């Protein structure tokens, strides 16, 4: 049985998450702080907990499946599951410095 390099796999997951964008805010979902948790088990199954900027987000039905599919397509990933949560609610404070800079908030 092959040993899963969880750190390398998480880095690849983050790189893929940085290719997913919220259509209302021109910044990727990772830098926006929409990704709350990435868990990778010993079989390379990836569970991602994320939120959206609001429950009425126009991509609420399409963004989570897009994220799930993009992660599933990473070489070495066995399966991908995205869980959407509203707790805690997203706020601008969750954005990293790069996102704040891109949006002129610094």
Topology (elements, then pairings):
Elements: H1 6-17, E1 35-40, E2 45-50, H2 63-72, E3 79-84, H3 97-102
Parallel strand pairs: 2-3
Antiparallel strand pairs: 1-2
The low-confidence runs, each spanning 5 or more residues with pLDDT under 50, are: none
What oligomeric state best describes the polypeptide chains here?
Answer: single chain
CATH topology: GMP Synthetase, Chain A, domain 3
Q: Alpha-carbon distance between the termini?
A: 48 Å
The secondary-structure class comes to alpha+beta
**Structural Rg:** 14 Å
H/E order of the elements?
HEEHEH
How much helix is in the residues? 25-40%
Q: Give the averaged pLDDT, no decimals.
A: 92
Order of the strands making up the biggest sheet: 1-2-3
Q: Count helical runs.
A: 3
Total separate domains? 1
CATH superfamily: Fe-S cluster assembly (FSCA)
Give a description of the structure:
This protein is of the alpha+beta class. The protein has a single domain, classed as GMP Synthetase, Chain A, domain 3, CATH 3.30.300.130. It has three helices and three strands, in the order αββαβα. It has a three-stranded mixed β-sheet with strand order 1-2-3, covered by helices on one side. Strand 2, helix 2 (63-72) and strand 3 form a beta-alpha-beta unit. The protein is globular and about 45 Å long. The mean pLDDT is 92.
